[in-house]
Write a structure and sequence with these properties.
Length: about 120
């Protein structure tokens, strides 16, 4: 059974940092492009960051460039999002996803809440 399970969300003050993790199971993680999306209340789900299957290339939304870093460890089936200099507008539910590099097969995690507030 394929599963993506996020962890690491929580409440943080503006300017603070959080580290989100996504643990993949039931799949050969190295065969998937992966990344993070987020969805704020009343808004659509937007891309935050993506990383290629081997980890050699990353892409970020303009709003998080220079503050967030995506990485992966295929040996540990783990995807990580390091978030620094957090702003209130970063408040959202963060979802990890994995998209097979050959087949049309995409999986999503259940989401983890990130709240940036003083």
């Amino acid at each position: 059974q394929v599963q993506l399970v996020e962890s690491g969300g929580g409440l943080v003050q503006p300017g603070g940092s959080l580290r989100l993790s996504c643990a993949a199971s039931g799949m050969v993680f190295s065969r998937y492009v992966a990344g993070w999306y987020r969805q704020a209340p009343g808004k659509q789900r937007d891309m935050v960051a993506t990383i290629t299957s081997g980890g050699g290339s990353t892409n970020y939304a303009d709003s998080v460039k220079g503050r967030f870093t995506i990485s992966r460890d295929n040996a540990k089936n783990t995807l990580v999002l390091e978030m620094n200099s957090l702003k209130p507008e970063d408040t959202a539910v963060y979802y990890c996803y994995a998209d097979h590099i050959v087949f049309s097969r995409t999986y999503w995690g259940q989401g983890t809440q990130v709240t940036v507030s003083s």
